[in-house]
Amino acid sequence: MSQQTRNQIIRAAEVLFARKGYAATSVREITEAAGVNIAAVNYHFGSKENLLIEILDRVVSPVNAERLKLLDELEAQDTPSVEDVLSAFLFPDLRILDELRRRDPELPRFVSRMYSEGSEFMSRVKGHQFGEIQDRFLAAFGNVLPHLNREEIEWRLHCVVGIVLYLFAGVDVPGVGSLAGPDPERTLTRLLNVSSPMMSAPLPVRED
Amino acid sequence: MSQQTRNQIIRAAEVLFARKGYAATSVREITEAAGVNIAAVNYHFGSKENLLIEILDRVVSPVNAERLKLLDELEAQDTPSVEDVLSAFLFPDLRILDELRRRDPELPRFVSRMYSEGSEFMSRVKGHQFGEIQDRFLAAFGNVLPHLNREEIEWRLHCVVGIVLYLFAGVDVPGVGSLAGPDPERTLTRLLNVSSPMMSAPLPVRED
DNA sequence: ATCCGAATCAAACATATGTTTTAAACAAAC
DNA sequence: GTTTGTTTAAAACATATGTTTGATTCGGAT
Fold this sequence. Notes:
Oligomer: homodimer
Shape of chain A: elongated
Largest sheet of chain A: none
Number of strands of chain A: 0
Mean pLDDT of chain A: 89
Largest interface: A-B, 53 and 53 residues
Structural class of chain A: mainly alpha
Helix content of chain A: over 70%
């Protein structure tokens, strides 16, 4: 079966994209690392760009699906707390972060890179992937944070996203450990512990 | 004077690096946008990589210098608050963010890109640039947050950095405005309003 | 006016890039 | 055993890349 070649390419490309970025990684590097022929990428994926899209999709789609499932469960039963909604938003990320890191320590950077490196077309992919997520969670946060307007909630949620992306990026300033510790449970606890007061903080008093 | 050619190259390269990333931007694009000869980059800067270093330095150094100056002033007088230290950390970023945005709306992304796109050698640059900053501010936060150990403070400060980087990255998910509004003062207010409770939050109770 | 170093230019260099091609190898079905 | 469709292989393709060269232009000091 040729599925093996596909997977080898994907595995090699993920790590290289994470380590060097999409633009700086050549098809030759990918195929050599994967131990397959140079033409395999174009044969199996059509183009280097398609390969990127497929890789991105494979990692992002399950995460967002899990997010929506958790939120559904949350809203099905009783009235959730801020921590509950935050947890539904953050937990899938930490799960995939841990999974990626087990596969390769540098792999999580792939996610954060795609957000910075993204070109025009990558923006469309993101909009498609995260449109529903955003709507659903903004509504959910609106219910548990009635003292904040939608625009403020949106702004703060983006702060959370910023932290999460930094989590995936890891830290490469020497002498500093990563934001994400070895224990995902503990990282979630810490994340909730700081992001919850951040989301819940009262509006500043406007002095006009 | 040839200083003009240098500046034209820098200005063009900044925007292109911000828009497309370093690796995806060619020297030809830069020189064409700058209206100078193709050889000018190598003549004036030695290499494309040197050009990047110089650009990065010109934007990061003043910011960190201002940070240290504000912190010095703060520690010279009376006992500062969490907001004070946070403000000294964040204000220079917002100033440069505003300045960059005035020059070109896409320019701020340059900063965030350099953090994700960075290769091995870029890591050394960062370590050199931010080593002192980190030490000084960790100590300052340690004084105003006596209930937190150094490791926790470091972790939370990195959360703040994550938010700031997202600030510079802007948001390119369609239908969503940027984290940084048009008014830097207001952005600082909002930032302090959420990051202050985040930094000050009590430690979670460990249930062992 | 002349000279000299600095700056610009067009052209070429060597190499790396993503992709395509053509043929060979392979596996399964008949 | 032959045939059919799919996968791999080596080579070539066309182009884009960062950089260098050598001639030319320019500006200010002698």
